[in-house]
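Reply to dn_fold:

You asked what the input looked like. This is it:
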Amino acid sequence: MITLQYKIEMDLCEDYSEMVQSWMKEHGVQSDKDGEDLWYDFFNLQKKSVSPQKRIVHYSKEFACPSEVELGLKLLVQKFENGDDVSLHLSKDATSPSEFDGLLYDWGIYHFHLGETIDHQTGRIERTGPVLFAKIDNENVYCINVYSHGKNVQQPWAKQDLLKIIHNNWPQTIARWKLPDGIEMYPESISPPSDTQYASLRKNGISTAIFVDKGIAYISPGGGYMSTGHSQEIVRYCQRVHNTLKLNELYVRDNITSLVRQIKEITGKSVSRRLCFKLIEIDNVFYVAEMQSNIALFKVEFQ
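and this is what came back:
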């Protein structure tokens, strides 16, 4: 039997990069990255954003809001409950694709400004000293507490009470990252890091467990961060996308005969020796398609 030789044109990773670039351009997002480096910026934006959908708002037992931002908090809570967009309450860095958010990557905690009006110079909600710290999932907003930031105050971004409050109120939300009970990581003669020391560790890309009580500790319930400052979760996902696409390229090359037969059966026509395979998206689902015949051949899943 004579095996026909086909000239295959295919670069699924480049196709994915073009999709990412198109999405960022469509949403007015600028980045100096290209190729697969652009993926990190793309997923970084997604991780730092909060999708507009209705959520149930919960308050910790320790929750206290300064009177100066009570109205701003009420406005934000209404937006959460109504499913409105809350992006204007986030830090300006939340819309910057290359800016890192150590608090979010490390502990999975967002912070929101509690202004009442739009600052027309920035287009964002008025910035406030006291900000809301909250953990968010698709259905819930867990309001941890309100702490001040800015000049002349100790910065709250590595305040270990944030994690302790989550443990005291909603331990099920971080159970996945809990270390075995009774663990001891420091000799009795050495104290665990202070908030200031922990902030320094995070700034230098060093991860360590946080003790919320004697023998009870968690490590990076936000997914963690790399020594470069990148979200560990994003780095792993980008690697998964890359590996998945490369495996699909191997599948195409190893099964070209059966794929050509599939195309012939669908079109009822002969197939060119020159084939062009591309990654396409239809209704938020990815497929590998042969472009000469314009046929989506199989689904691509990154999970």
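Residues 232-254 form the longest helix (23 residues).
Hope that clears it up.
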